[in-house]
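Ticket reopened. Same input as before:
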Amino acid sequence: MTTLFIQSLLDALTLGALYALIALGYTMVYGVLGFINFAHSDVFAIGAWTGLLTSSLLGLSIVMGSQTVEPRGWEIFLVIPAAVLVCGLLAWVIQRLAYAPLRDAPRLNVLITAIGVSLLLQNVGQLPWVFGTDPRPMPRLIENPLLFEIQGVQVTLLPMLTIVAAMVLMVGLEVLIFHTRFGRAMRAVSMNPKVASLMGIPVDRVIDGTFVLGGALAGAAGVLFAMEYPTVQQPASNTWVLLGLKAFIAAVIGGIGNIRGAMVGGFLIAFLERFGAAAQQFFPGIISFDTTVYRDVYCFAILIVILLVRPAGLFGRSVVEKV
Amino acid sequence: MIRSIFAPLMVLLIAIGVHGLVGRYDDGYWINQLTIIGIAIILAVSLNIVNGFTGQFSIGHAGFLSLGGYLAGSLLYYGSVMFFQTRPEPGFFSFTQPFDRMDPTIVWWGIGDLFFLCVCLSAGLFAAVAGLIVGLPSLRLRGDYLAIVTVGFGEIVRILIESSQRQVPLSRLNRADGWDLVTGWGSAMGFNYIPKFGSLFWVYLFVGITILTAIRLKYSTHGRAYLSIREDEIAAEAMGVRSTRYKIQAFVISAFFAGIAGALTASSQGTINATELAFMKSLEIVVIVVLGGMGSVSGAVLAAVVLTYLPELLQAETFARYRLILYALVLIFVMILRPRGLMGTREVWDVFRRRRGVQG
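Engineering reply: fixed in the latest deploy. New output:
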């Protein structure tokens, strides 16, 4: 029982760190522009694929189930920046080409455009000369030695590294948003873009910066995700859509537009998912059905509950709309 | 009095006409194509009531389609054994094949046809109740919450259906223990061997009813309320429009017709598969609505016909691969260049009226 508990805890922490990183991208864009950036999960997927392609460029690849070259340790410091760069750039291009022309359009139009962009990224990524339609294995970028063992649960380096890396990125973002000039400009734009521009804040540049930031985080999270779960699905796979949805739900639960809320929400969703899936083993006599099957259902249930009870999210304040 | 009966009567006559003419002269190809097109029209026009009229954004229409389809499938598959001991033979109006394969002793209107009508309506009602449950928490709020909740709803329906147990073959079913076996119908292969009742008559009857409902709604008090919510929800509320109530109403009506479309899909193809009715299917319906014009009933019908038949017409391998890329580009460009869709709120007859210089 304790073994199962600690195992679930570890899984939930790793997964939660990744959810939180993706949720941050959703919540930042929602805070600044007020729409759901549906293409964010695809940027994340492209991050994972960039990680995979860069590693094979560096000589690390998997042929017939075994890795050609053992990782030398420094590749990860090239692979993650590459994914960050590609995804940041991609997010910037998307914002410039698709969302910027619609700045003054009704929100519904921007939402539909976002879905269009998502569809475009998925299907272009699926073409045979881009990423193809088959899942591919991600090579190991670092060794994965055993760190310590609690109650029969073996804790290895990789999940710990994922958690730590995600934490570092989140603290970095926190510093950026609450302690720098750019962060202050971003918060001002999210409060009121018109007044912000009257105060001399370059709104367009701030919005671009927000997208680049969100994309970069998604890129880093993509590589971490691919390292942790080393089968990279094709870009149009349901996995990415579901991941994106859960991350968005995490952002809503934390209070959409609220940076700290998104982090907490990410961990909350992951805990719900992992412990919900293991519920049958925790209460063997009471729950008779197979709870792992419904892993993806719990977070939607909690979304409905949150929307009914606290529509502004756990940390959000409800805003009265004025005319 | 005569005017109010005239349109429904026309719908009935057109449905009989389509069924009779196509069934008489076709070898099966057009029956199949027209069925698929008809179902696409029902889906597009019903989604247009939510996305076009009220300006909300639902992307889980395939979820309602699955719900209706699986309920209708279960009722037809297990229910016909429970109620009639055997599969009731379809009458003339529910005959899904070309007429030259018809048994000459066929009845014009059998009890099976009445049963199928009830199945369709219950599938619609079932989906409508699901729509109420989904709509109540999410439509109280402004903003894009409906989008995310409906995506989630579609996924939940898919997962629940896929994870239920395998269906039971009809031969093992007898009336004594039949009810226990209804619990599981999901499998990777979908739900098969559903009795076929979904003939062109039924499809086009419901197409007509859907279009008629949508048009009458659009020009009624309720429709005006929907449009006012789309234009400015706060202003509408200030004018005394109860926005939450109208939004939920539109959503439930839309879900009802999606459920009927599910029943028609299940009983015209004889099979339904929740795996195929995932997020992509919902998106395809959204593309039809956006392209046709958000708020234009005739635009939605036109777009449904074109976008359903075009892939069939251009059945090249390359086109299948690039189809979704094309859809995506169309979505983005239509949104940037023609924000209200190709037709906007206008109907086809509005365009012609303006051309003649007569202002309605």
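Chain A has a mean pLDDT of 87. Chain A touches chain B at residues 34-36, 98, 101-102, 105-113, 115-120, 122-124, 127, 238, 241-242, 245, 248-249, 252, 290, 293-294, 296-297, 300, 303-304, 307-308, 311, 321, 323 (CB under 8 Å). Please confirm and we'll close it.
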